[in-house]
């Protein structure tokens, strides 16, 4: 090991073929290209874009995004929530995370920032290019029958990953959960204007069945609403939002629910997770949801994927042997990732966040994770309030 091997031991730039231009695929592509790799990123859709709701990016993700130079634009385009407040049956139960460094942003904006950074780093993005598999010798197999040879092939093609499913020696545990979420972006009405509304509010009711509205301002003109219910509650699992059923349970949010009913471009997803072992075989590796889709209860799925993507490029830089780098990388990231998956599954199953004061030091371990690629200056610029430290 040691030294920087971005040019490989032959002196030629190393090359990667990446499947999937979601948050994980874009991040790993940027991180590798900035370290001298030649990177081609394949997206099955004819356009590179993410659909229109919002996302929370925790401190772990922001540190990773600092490494690839995208964090300043996120800070400029997103909202740093003042607190994370929880309300049960219309009554406040806790206010947490005051001063904790995390951001909310719309998904299209985050995606556009990553696409711009990828192009600036020299990544070649090929749209309408569908991967059907990969081989451990570093080949990416496309739907048109082409095999592209690379030093590393990366499956970043999401929870249903064709790349992962083609690599028979990886074991998978997949699970579907009882809950689903409708996600919409609404315009920010007059009554939710002002800095006092720049906070996350997690509204719950548990009887007769659990329903939840996660209210996240993502900028001066947009609020992201994540509306969770069990899939057996069919009316609450519909897009467009069923205004009657949601405002009956959340009468104090009637204005926002009405706007959610008119929102365009919303979608409903059920929770599904997968745990893959190991994350790589030969010169083929998985990042993001392809490797470790998790319940959204912790809001950490993309954040952990972004961290692991940046760490992958950092580790590859330190070894001339790709296989050795992949082993070291997985050893570094595995326990943090497994813990995040297990914790978010527990939180989804027990609905523990509804009680308030859910961001215990143990729960904050994922958000507080510091990647090896982060500089001490970056780490120092995201200080963690004493109350939220997990150390
Ligand atoms: C309700 C909900 C709320 C969430 N909230 C948060 C949050 O607040 N914070 C957070 O960090 N995470 C959150 N997550 C998790 C987060 O959305 C995912 O972890 C993240 O989007 C996964 O990114 P990805 O790039 O791995 O995969 P994806 O986003 O699925 O991207 C995969 C890309 O690959 C493309 N693709 C697929 N198959 C192929 C193929 N065969 N060939 C070529 N291209 C292909 C797709 O078109 C897509 O562009 C949430 C998830 C849910 C369901």
TrEMBL record:
Pfam families: FAD_binding_3. Keywords: Dioxygenase, Monooxygenase, Oxidoreductase. Transmembrane segments: none annotated. GO terms for molecular function: dioxygenase activity; FAD binding; monooxygenase activity. Residues 18-316 form the FAD-binding domain. This is 2-methyl-3-hydroxypyridine 5-carboxylic acid dioxygenase. It comes from Micromonospora pallida.
